[in-house]
Design brief:
single chain; 127 residues; alpha+beta
Length: 127
């Protein structure tokens, strides 16, 4: 079954399965959707060693990625938050999921940006 994981890693944004587990998937003729849940592995720093850390829930972020086989491909990342003993601010891992100012995966956003730039250069337009 290791080959299935490898195939899934080719479709998901780079490094996704390092921090997330696949929880569900669904699809039809026009759309594919995968739900991923962040692993319960808090980002520990030396200052946090020895402190009680408890998972306090999720915040869902849904992004659009490259189409797959002509279908819209969306990913919902269930981002985990932790409560650290003695702190009021919740702890979260810094993972860049989407291109700044968009709901697109970083790779898809960069692809569209480059495609737009290539089109402008082809037609002699300037930014």
């Amino acid at each position: 079954m290791e080959f299935l994981k490898e195939i899934v890693e080719w479709v998901l944004p780079l490094g996704t399965l390092t921090w997330f587990d696949i929880k569900s998937s669904s699809g039809n003729e026009t759309e594919l959707h995968i739900v991923l849940e962040e692993k319960n592995e808090p980002p520990l720093t030396p200052e946090l060693k020895g402190k009680k850390i408890e998972s306090k829930g999720f915040k869902d972020i849904t992004i659009t990625d490259f189409p797959v086989r002509g279908r819209r491909f969306t990913l919902t990342f269930r981002r985990r938050y932790w409560q650290v003993e003695g702190q009021t601010e919740l702890l979260k891992r810094e993972i860049e999921l989407c291109a700044p100012g968009t709901q697109l995966s970083v790779e898809f956003g960069n692809f569209l940006k480059d495609a737009s730039r290539d089109k402008r250069e082809f037609f002699g337009e300037h930014s």
